[in-house]
TrEMBL record:
Protein name (database record): Glutamine amidotransferase
Repressor found in the keyword field: no
Source organism: Tatumella punctata
Keywords in alphabetical order: Glutamine amidotransferase
Pfam families to which the protein is assigned, alphabetical: GATase (PF00117)
UniProt cross-references to Gene3D superfamilies, sorted A to Z: 3.40.50.880
Keyword Lyase applies: no
InterPro entries: ChyE-like (IPR044992), Class_I_gatase-like (IPR029062), GATASE (IPR017926)
Record NCBIfam families: PRK09065.1
Length: 244
């Protein structure tokens, strides 16, 4: 029986109104990477799905969530243990937002709440000097726009990890943990429409924080470089894959 090479480790799901209009997280990743959803194995760990045994012949994308890593929910702790096992066999891993933080936590780093309450909108991510020699991240421009929405952050990277990019509010936007494992705090899978809808949905929360929701919405743009990082990562490991 054919096993999909790409696994989406789904750690959460958008609010129902967002799902109805824009689909679930696997739909977003499927569209971003140009691979039909039927050719991807989706494992809803937040819903109790069991992960397959780590396999270096397959690639896993660990998604964002509406949970917090510091809650240490049972499914999250099980996924953290799976990440450690996957790293032990050099399975390719790409973490996004919650997945980024969970990878850092699982491998010995620390996660905490941001000092600035949250980082949200389409914001500039800047490469660090260490990124210049990275075979994947080093192909990106020195700075590029990316979709961000998070309240927690990697406050300390695991020992031996390389921090490759940051933003004004977060010093850990891209982290490399080894030859086959990278994570991003930003969302390479977001579309402009979905990002704007989620921002508008939180307008009262942002207003209470003194933020201008309309200004955030107006600043949301396409983020091709952020998406290219994900598709380039996949292209390294998935046979026959050609980024769109």
């Amino acid at each position: 029986m054919h096993q999909p090479q790409i696994i989406i480790v789904q750690t959460g799901t958008p609010p129902e109104d967002i799902r109805q209009q824009y689909g679930d997280l696997p739909d977003w990743f499927s569209q971003a990477i140009g691979v039909p959803l039927k050719e991807i194995l989706v494992v809803r760990v937040f819903d109790g799905d069991e992960l397959p045994a780590p396999d270096p012949r397959r690639l896993a994308i660990i998604t964002g969530s509406w949970a917090m890593v510091t809650e240490k929910l049972p499914w999250s702790e099980k996924t953290a243990a799976w990440i450690r096992s996957a790293m032990a066999v050099s399975m390719p891993l790409f973490g996004v937002c919650y997945g980024h933080q969970l990878m850092a936590y699982a491998l010995g780093g620390e996660v905490r709440y941001l000092d600035s309450v949250r980082e949200t909108g389409c914001l500039s991510v800047s490469l660090r000097e260490a990124a210049k020699n990275d075979p994947l991240v080093g192909t990106l421009p020195d700075s590029f726009p990316a979709h961000l929405t998070h309240m927690q952050t990697v406050s300390r990277a695991p020992q031996g990890a390389k921090v490759l990019a940051d933003s004004a509010a977060d010093g850990h936007q891209i982290v490399r943990y080894g030859p086959n494992a990278v994570s991003t705090q930003f969302h390479p899978e977001f579309t402009v429409a979905a990002a704007r809808a989620m921002t508008a949905r939180n307008s009262e929360i942002f207003a209470a924080e003194g933020r201008d929701t309309q200004a955030i919405i107006d600043g949301i743009t396409q983020t091709p470089e952020a998406t290219r990082l994900l598709t380039a990562f996949i292209a390294q490991y998935v046979a026959g894959y050609r980024p769109q």
